[in-house]
């Protein structure tokens, strides 16, 4: 096996893993402050050794949040002017600016979910927050690009763009990291989003929307529970009702009945609370249908709750006023889904060693913002797997062998792209 992932890359990965970069939307009281700007500076320094120049290292413009599809949680966080300033993205380039047909772009995120832990490497496996999602893939990407840069056509005939972004985690969905860079035209004929896919080339990415069902009623003392609105009973009923009705309601979608919160004390009726649903879809039209189904079943659920609990003693008031005190809102909605196809690019990926996607529906990531790009093909590709490698969970890890294999795929993909330019120009997607 070729040694693309050298000792210097191992040191760089451990260095990046030591520096916390928890997305502020994810951070808990025990998480250390993010040092993402420092991480990006170190990443840019390492990339410079492979010939990359830094085009941009800065926070996004505030205007990027004045757009459809920006989650309400992002808008709320950005009321603090330090939020965007502390969440910069990095744009690197190897070679001069060239037409899209002669450009390949890679995107990787360096923010992480909560739960930062000290990293470790035992000679075979890296552990630590971000090991597989996605600091490990980010360093393996650099290793592969450094190897590809030795090919005479890379940088001379083709240009490589590299986006190292913030704002992928925490439900931000790239709205202040990837989206502004793509809309500014920083993409290529072939675009690769580096996420853990088991080295399968996924030409699709699901989008997600988040429904927030809020009950705004009155509390009551436990000695007179009938005097208040019982948000726990109402939202608990709606959670089960929606789980049953939405499961499979729109083929190709997934429904996650997520957090339900009313209160922690035992000696009162909690009159306020929230229920969250996260809803993913492979096609934008399916997302629209699912949104309609959610609204319909919330109304139906409230009607059924009233019928069931109106005759009771303790919950009659809640039943009688359920529709008035319950509101359906959307933390995020209207996001596009990626579903791409291009035989030429898919054959190139297969030659480079990427595995077939088969029927894998993909998952939600920043690649959604590449949906609909003209004269371009986009895929999601990277080492390790979200579930098997414990991304977003304690004990997150990635194996050195997987990083090495991904670096080799990157090297071959870039060099094959450079050698296949005439065919690429003749076979652009419609």
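Q: What amino acid sequence fits the structure above?
A:
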């Amino acid at each position: 096996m070729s040694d693309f992932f050298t000792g210097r890359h191992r040191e760089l990965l451990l260095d990046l893993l030591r520096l916390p970069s928890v997305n502020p939307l994810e951070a808990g009281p025990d998480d250390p402050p993010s040092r993402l700007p420092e991480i990006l500076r170190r990443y840019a320094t390492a990339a410079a050794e492979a010939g990359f120049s830094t085009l941009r290292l800065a926070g996004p413009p505030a205007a990027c949040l004045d757009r459809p599809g920006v989650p309400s949680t992002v808008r709320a966080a950005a009321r603090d002017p330090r939020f965007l300033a502390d969440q910069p993205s990095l744009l690197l380039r190897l070679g001069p600016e060239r037409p899209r047909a002669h450009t390949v772009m890679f995107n990787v995120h360096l923010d992480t979910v909560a739960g930062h832990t000290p990293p470790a490497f035992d000679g075979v496996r890296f552990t630590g927050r971000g090991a597989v999602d996605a600091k490990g893939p980010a360093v393996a990407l650099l290793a592969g690009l450094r190897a590809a840069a030795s090919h005479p056509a890379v940088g001379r005939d083709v240009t490589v763009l590299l986006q190292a972004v913030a704002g992928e985690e925490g439900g931000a969905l790239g709205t202040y990291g990837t989206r502004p860079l793509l809309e500014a035209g920083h993409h290529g004929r072939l675009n690769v989003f580096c996420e853990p896919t088991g080295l399968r080339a996924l030409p699709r990415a699901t989008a997600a929307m988040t429904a927030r069902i809020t009950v705004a009623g009155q509390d009551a003392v436990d000695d007179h529970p009938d005097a208040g609105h019982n948000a726990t009973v109402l939202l608990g009923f709606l959670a089960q009702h929606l789980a049953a009705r939405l499961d499979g309601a729109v083929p190709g979608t997934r429904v996650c009945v997520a957090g339900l919160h009313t209160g922690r004390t035992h000696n009162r009726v909690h009159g306020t609370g929230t229920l969250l649903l996260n809803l993913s879809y492979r096609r934008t039209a399916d997302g629209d249908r699912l949104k309609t189904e959610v609204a319909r079943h919330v109304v139906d659920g409230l009607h059924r709750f009233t019928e069931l609990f109106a005759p009771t003693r303790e919950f009659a008031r809640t039943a009688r006023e359920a529709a008035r005190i319950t509101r359906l809102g959307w933390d995020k909605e209207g996001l596009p889904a990626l579903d791409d196809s291009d035989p030429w690019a898919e054959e190139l990926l297969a030659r480079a060693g990427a595995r077939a996607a088969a029927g894998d529906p993909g998952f939600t990531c920043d690649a959604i913002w590449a949906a609909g790009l003209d004269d371009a093909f986009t895929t999601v590709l990277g080492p390790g797997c979200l579930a098997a490698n414990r991304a977003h969970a304690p004990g997150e890890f990635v194996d050195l062998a997987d990083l090495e294999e991904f670096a080799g795929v990157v090297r071959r993909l870039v060099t094959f792209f450079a050698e296949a330019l005439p065919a690429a120009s003749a076979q652009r997607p419609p």
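Q: And what stands out in the fold?
A: The longest strand covers residues 207-216.
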